């Protein structure tokens, strides 16, 4: 399976994917690392591994159509079978979502459908979890559709919310779980074990 990874930050989930590939857990190869930023850790990590990188942002184009055209062309050129959003903080153009229907996967640092939607990323998620008073959080791998964090859920794993947690300590605990379940979901795709029926998805 050829995998295109999109990332906006330091790339810890990207590194978890590479570790899973290196260990033989994930039968895939990363053919492209795309970022909306030019100077982030994910790009540096990809370059260090000889993985093709691309800085591509909506602000570089006059329209979403032009942006989508370039993204689609790059995905085709790198023969991407699946797109993994590993901390990618921008909306995917609608035409790309349609073209890669049920082939775009995101990792979210909470138990969706709770604590998702516009603005719910990074520390904002963990602050909202703590403010709510819930005793459990976790991570979710889901398919991407045209609404933020509303696509069918593939995998979830929980972590406890401790009485003395801060957003930072909770984030660290959730990140460990992200690194565990994201490669497992990608492995299921590579092995043809993902089934999508309407608004639901499952791993066989």
Question: What does the model show?
Answer:
The protein has 204 residues and is an alpha/beta fold. The chain has a domain at 2-107 and 141-155 and 179-196: Formyl transferase, N-terminal domain (Rossmann fold, 3-Layer(aba) Sandwich), CATH 3.40.50.170. It is 36% helix and 24% strand. The protein is built from 6 helices and 9 strands; from the N terminus they run βαβαβαβαβαββαββ. The chain has helices at residues 12-23, 41-48, 64-77, 94-99, 123-132, 167-190, and strands at residues 2-6, 29-35, 53-55, 82-85, 104-108, 136-143, 153-160, 194-197, 200-203. The strands form 2 sheets. Strands 3-2-1-4-5-6-7 form a 7-stranded mixed β-sheet, with helices on one face. The protein has a two-stranded antiparallel sheet with strand order 8-9. Strand 8 (194-197) and strand 9 (200-203) form a beta hairpin. Helix 1 packs across helix 6 and helix 5 packs across helix 6 (167-190). The longest helix has 24 residues, at 167-190. The radius of gyration is 16 Å and the shape is globular. It starts with a strand and ends with a strand. The model has no long low-confidence stretch (mean pLDDT 96).
Task: Detail the topology: elements first, then pairings.
Layout: E1 2-6, H1 12-23, E2 29-35, H2 41-48, E3 53-55, H3 64-77, E4 82-85, H4 94-99, E5 104-108, H5 123-132, E6 136-143, E7 153-160, H6 167-190, E8 194-197, E9 200-203
Parallel strand pairs: 1-2, 1-4, 2-3, 4-5
Antiparallel strand pairs: 5-6, 6-7, 8-9
Helix pairs in contact: 1-6, 5-6
């Amino acid at each position: 399976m050829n995998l295109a990874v999109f990332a906006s930050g330091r790339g810890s989930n990207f590194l978890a994917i590479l570790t899973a590939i290196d260990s033989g857990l994930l039968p895939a190869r990363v053919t492209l690392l795309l970022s909306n930023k030019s100077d982030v850790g994910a790009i540096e990590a990809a370059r260090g591994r000889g993985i093709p990188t691309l800085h591509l942002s909506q602000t570089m184009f006059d329209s979403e159509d032009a942006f989508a055209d370039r993204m689609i062309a790059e995905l085709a050129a790198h023969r991407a079978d699946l797109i993994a959003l590993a901390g990618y903080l921008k909306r995917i153009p609608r035409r790309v979502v349609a073209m890669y229907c049920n082939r775009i996967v995101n990792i979210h640092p909470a138990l969706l459908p709770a604590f998702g939607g516009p603005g719910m990323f990074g520390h904002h998620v963990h602050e909202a979890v703590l403010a709510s008073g819930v005793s459990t959080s976790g991570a979710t791998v889901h398919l991407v559709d045209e609404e933020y964090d509303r696509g069918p859920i593939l995998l979830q794993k929980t972590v406890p919310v401790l009485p003395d947690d801060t957003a930072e300590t909770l984030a660290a605990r959730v990140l460990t779980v992200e690194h565990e379940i994201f490669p497992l979901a990608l492995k299921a795709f590579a092995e043809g074990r993902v089934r999508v029926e309407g608004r639901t998805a499952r791993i066989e």
